[in-house]
Design goal:
The protein is of the alpha/beta class. About 30% of the residues lie in helices and about 15% in strands. Bound molecules: flavin-adenine dinucleotide. The site of flavin-adenine dinucleotide has 32 residues, from helix 1, strand 3 and strand 4.
Length: about 700
């Protein structure tokens, strides 16, 4: 049955369900030398790590190869230690209660929309379009899918890439861990088990650090990719199995997205059920849950949920004050202090979205007119805006710090008081989320944080801040912005409220402490009197940022020890050493300890966190290219630059589909009518921004 808007000439998604065999010549026994498995007689590009970042590079390589024939044979290796095609975070076989925190309609791994032609790199279905074709029960593009389903979509994208490769270009899928990279005779040799894969270009998209010094104490009962540091369990069931069992009290440190994973695993993952919707949601236990889950964090605030979907998925926010142009101007004067120079403009932008909903339309129109006459000083922009909003009848304004730390400075006489306050806050947050990402002033403002991430990066990345400010950003501001803008579906909030009411979940006041005691731990908060819980185990549910110096993964360790990779350091007095790998600007070549640059190697995504900000992105978005596709394309272009590709249809090698340019039009704001090709006040039109990015 054809799906409106999706035309399929070549349904290819089931052609490669079984990965290609890794046909290997083993090293001769006793020989110190490792035998090459793939030397090949042609050119070779390897992509190490096939999570979303690796797939995005492969998709752009595929798009750039469409309709061309390389002058010599080309082999592309897709290598992954976990699951080739989806990677560890999105692997199949993980419990379905682990869901993604993106709506399916806002996700695509194709760098252009499906058109009248066959699905191919550069023109394929969004995740929602694919899901709709695959499943008659497709719940709609606003639904949040399980992570394993997104993993299947990623594998499908790789299949489409492979199917569309030109003659003399082959894709080889290699399951295995790359444990070292040597350079020999101008080529790279990748060590995978006892095999060597030779290649001319290599892109490293290895995601979250695989191993850290205390990895040995990780326990296996919950999904391992979140890097939960869990203390060695003293709990065991009758069969001697270690882990959580009914009757235990489990502490959880962290109230972000991983906390939701842990809660899901300990409840529905153990056979419990949520029944009813919204405020009426109730938890029906299975009896297999622990007695109590006690969770906490520094702020005691569970990650705020996203407003219900109200904007087109391809919508791009047009900022009024926190513009890329302003940041470029500020940055040209030298390293910035994020708190003093940048944050006020970001907060101003967020509040504009807030007042858009809080003021009546005619007052907001007046307010908007005043924006152009504002003096350009970060020091007083918020004061001036607050005054203007107040003159028009709204005395409220949002502060990011207050939103992230609602209990700061508060003390509570008992846990009941704190729980009551928290529950009111969660109910209120869920109510705002239900109003929607446009109609709720609060959620509209928080969406802005998500929308302007690229501008934050423009201020921070590649040495934009002073050393002291970069430290402050990495340790406090960046995590706060991420916390406020990456929330899950509101359903998760209703689940938390139901669990709190059922007595299965308790949240500690700020800041939560878990200290070792006897055979377990004591959980408490210094700001809540008379409440201490004894826990058998504590799960650390915080995601660790990568740290090149501490990473014990064999590849990273070897590259670091050989001086081939170095950490990104912000010079200053004192300087600030981040944990991210130091890379050049696009195409992200690693910089060695001696300052030399490896031009045929690329490092993309999480390993470079702190050199660049917020690399934990696993999706492309429909609409004009954002950084996700631009990053992938820059690497694809560089990796293909040494092979002759006769017959290029256009200068930069990107294949232009029939609808490519139509794709670049759209409204600037849901309230505004589409206005193709024109400039809007305060921002670039889609057409303009698209043509500058492609
Ligand atoms: C539990 C969890 C849930 C998340 N949910 C979301 C979400 O809903 N939405 C979102 O946008 N982001 C989410 N994220 C953020 C996530 O980081 C990105 O979505 C995305 O997975 C990052 O893509 P990547 O390709 O950089 O890394 P990954 O997806 O982590 O893929 C990297 C791959 O490289 C492999 N690898 C590493 N080293 C080697 C080696 N030496 N040799 C061979 N293979 C290697 C790994 O095994 C892994 O499969 C989540 C993260 C986690 C941990």
């Amino acid at each position: 049955m054809p799906v409106p808007g999706v035309s399929v000439c070549t349904p290819v998604y089931n052609r490669h369900l079984i990965p290609a065999q890794f046909v290997a010549n083993h090293a001769p026994a006793g020989s110190p030398a490792i035998m090459p498995t793939y030397l090949g007689n042609g050119y070779a590009i390897a992509v190490v790590g096939t999570g979303p970042r690796g797939i995005s590079i492969l998709e752009r390589i595929g798009a750039r190869l469409l309709g061309k024939r390389p002058v010599r044979p080309l082999t592309i290796y897709a290598i992954d230690a976990d699951e080739v095609g989806s990677g560890r975070v999105w692997r199949s076989g993980q419990p379905r209660c682990l869901s993604m925190n993106n709506r399916s309609g806002e996700v695509t791994m194709f760098s252009g929309p499906a058109d009248d032609g066959a699905w191919r790199p550069g023109a394929g279905p969004t995740f929602a379009e694919w899901w709709q074709r695959m499943d008659a029960r497709f719940p709609g593009p606003d639904a949040y899918a399980s992570r394993s389903l997104y993993g299947r979509y990623l594998r499908f994208v790789l299949d489409v890439v492979e199917t569309n490769l030109p003659p003399d270009v082959g894709l080889v899928r290699i399951p295995g861990l790359v444990s070292g990279i040597e350079k020999r005779g101008g080529r790279f040799e990748l060590l995978v088990g006892d095999h060597v894969i030779a290649c001319d270009q290599v892109a490293i998209c290895s995601g979250h650090p695989r191993e850290q010094p205390d990895r040995s104490v990780l326990a296996g009962w919950t999904n391992p990719e979140r890097h939960q540091r869990r203390t060695a369990s003293r709990a065991s069931d009758d069969a001697g199995r270690r882990g959580v069992f009914p009757g235990s009290v489990i502490g959880v440190l962290g109230l972000g997205l991983t906390f939701h994973d842990v809660v899901a695993m300990l409840t529905v993952g153990r056979g419990g059920r949520f029944v009813g919707r919204g405020q009426d949601c109730e938890y029906i236990p299975s009896g297999e849950e622990p007695d109590l889950i006690v969770a906490g964090s520094r702020s005691a605030l569970p990650i705020p949920t996203r407003g219900a979907s109200q904007r087109p998925f391809s919508f791009r926010y047009a900022p009024r004050l926190f513009t890329p142009e302003r940041i470029a101007r500020l940055r040209s004067a030298g390293p910035l202090d994020f708190r003093a120079d940048v944050l006020p403009w970001l907060e101003a932008e967020e509040n504009i979205a807030f007042w858009r909903r809080r003021l009546d339309p005619s007052s907001f129109a007046l307010f908007e007119r005043q924006l152009s006459s504002l003096p350009s000083s970060a020091a007083d922009v918020m004061l001036r805006l607050r005054q203007a909003a107040s003159d028009l009848g709204c005395d409220e304004a949002l502060s990011l710090e207050d939103l992230a730390h609602p209990f700061r400075g508060r003390v509570f006489p008992n846990q009941g008081e704190f729980r009551g306050e928290l529950e009111r806050l969660l109910v209120n947050d869920a109510g705002e989320a239900m109003l929607g990402e446009v109609d709720s002033a609060l959620k509209a403002a928080l969406e802005v944080l998500r929308d302007v991430r690229p501008t934050v990066r423009a201020a921070v990345d590649f040495g934009g801040l002073t050393a002291a400010s970069h430290k402050d950003f990495v340790e406090r501001i960046g995590p706060m912005l991420a916390f406020l803008s990456t929330g899950p579906s509101v359903v998760r909030s209703y689940h938390l409220i139901a669990l709190l009411r059922s007595g299965l979940l308790e949240i500690l006041g700020p800041p939560a402490r878990f200290t070792a005691h006897d055979d377990g731990f004591l959980g408490y908060s210094p700001s809540v009197a008379d409440y201490i819980v004894s826990c058998s185990d504590v799960i650390d549910a915080r995601i660790r940022p990568p740290d090149l110096e501490r990473d014990a993964g064999p590849l990273t360790k070897k590259q670091r020890d050989a001086g081939a990779w170095r950490p990104h350091v912000r010079a200053g007095d004192p300087s600030f050493r981040t944990g991210g790998i130091d890379v050049t600007e696009a195409p992200y070549n690693p910089i060695a300890a001696d300052g030399s640059v490896e031009r045929r190697m690329y490092v993309l995504g999480i390993p470079t966190e702190s050199t660049r900000w917020f690399m934990q992105v696993g999706i492309g978005r429909p609409g004009p290219w954002g950084e996700f596709f631009r990053d992938a394309d820059a690497i694809a272009q560089a990796a293909l630059s040494e092979i002759g590709l006769p017959g290029l249809p256009c200068e930069d090698g990107a294949s232009v589909g029939p609808h490519d340019m139509d794709y670049c039009f759209g409204p600037q704001h849901p309230d505004e009518p589409p206005f193709p090709g024109s400039r809007t006040h305060g921002g670039m039109s889609w057409k303009t921004s698209c043509s500058t990015t492609r």
